[in-house]
Amino acid sequence: MPLHPKRRELDQALAHASSYQEWLGIAQELDTRDGLMDWRSSDASAFCHERLMREHIQQMRSMIEHQDLGGLATLLQESVYRHLGELNNPELYLYARSGTKQIVSEYLDEVEHVMRSLSEQPIPQMSEQQKLALFEQAARIYGCPALMLSGGATFGIYHLGVVKALFEQNLLPKVLVGSSMGAIIAAGMCNRTDEELAEFFKTQVYEIHRDALRWRRPQAMRKQHSAMDEQQLLEHIRVNVGSVTFAEAYAKSGRVLNISVSPTRTHQKPRVLNYLTAPDVLVEYAVLASCAVPLLYPPVTLYARGKDGRKIPYMSTETWIDGSVHGDLPRERLARLHNVNQTIISQANPHIIPFITHRNHRGVRALGKQVLSSVIHVGSAELLDIGRHIFNKTPLSPLLSHAHAIAAQSYLGDINIQFPFQPAAYLKVVTNPTPERLAHYIRLGEQATWPQIAMIRDLTRISRLFPECIAQIKANMATT
């Protein structure tokens, strides 16, 4: 049955929206036409305990009205951990375009009101020091979100649009992780203050240095054992990122940059470099190493800033390559280092995109694609595992090991934003973008992020509140 002309116009307008507010207005109109706003306004849900949630909302309101702050603190702790798993269910966000059940927003509104009330007012029989310890412990238990930017060669420019969309909605996490092209974007974001980022996205993002890729001549390829010029890439990194250490970038922006690199020696695990594990390492060399995909770029020697300010080798006996070969997205390491509890993954790897485009879709076709991609994923990993054992200690062994590591990985997180599968775009995946294509990739990143904004805002809301509440309690203590 053909679509109604008005519906076609709305679908086209949604696909060509130029801002999140424009996109949201169109999404709400479509949801109204499809009856999904009625679904949002109804409490009934198979994915959360809506009656208990409504009961907790009423109890919180009553306790605030009667100033029962002690009981409120107990209820808050029990209620948040009771509903946490349900609120994290992505199924709640697969129906309506503009958001999930309104009761979820009501509940989170009330939780925020309670947290602010408890942080601002004295709690009977609890000192401010005890309250601070309570909030800090709760923050550690609850955790924080991280934005993880995959590789993608030229496709990775799309990560700029993802970051732009999140930053404009005040949803950019403090913990950023990057690999390959994603490392360049993450490093650039973590070496700018919020004020500088606002100006960057307003006036500078479309004027960035674009010439990252330069092919070697055939004779140089054979001599250097790599296809591309690393010095050209290093220039691109320095112009767009600057030259700072991990510690200096953290001190400037307050954001935690994480870059995964791997030693070239066999049987070595990837290392996550950040201001805790490698504070004096120079970011531009870590980014360069993260881009050092075997055969494309040669291994990289890392450098650090010495006590006298001069550049010195870091682990001079080691050379490093792209850590995503063995672990594109180092979730477990991030959880231990930074207490990450939510992963937002921006995925632009060309070899991954075709197998994950169905993840946000419903229906029989999406299910069929999911089954097929899972079979291919598992089957290719098994075949490569067999191959690397058969050809062990042969010239093929390193290549098969790398291929197996890539095939065996999981490339998805709690919230996934992916570059759209466009077969024609693959012809330009390893070329420097024109100004027009740069703007196109950035807009693709924004458009891919907007449908996820409601979910990201809800799932990260409580963790984003803890720093504000802890700062309020410390301010209270300073004035008493």
UniProtKB/TrEMBL annotation:
Print the keywords alphabetically. Answer: Hydrolase, Lipid degradation, Lipid metabolism
**PROSITE patterns named in the record:** PNPLA
Task: Classify the source by domain of life.
Answer: Bacteria
The molecular function terms of the Gene Ontology recorded here are:
triacylglycerol lipase activity
- InterPro entries to which the protein is assigned, alphabetical: Acyl_Trfase/lysoPLipase, NTE, PNPLA_dom, Triacylglycerol_lipase_N
One of its GO biological process terms is:
lipid catabolic process
User: Motif GXSXG, which positions?
Assistant: 178-182
Q: Where do the catalytic residues lie?
A: 180 (nucleophile), 322 (proton acceptor)
A Pfam family found in this protein is DUF3336
Q: Which residues form the PNPLA domain?
A: 147-335
Question: What's the protein here called?
Answer: DUF3336 domain-containing protein
Source organism of this protein record: Aquirhabdus parva
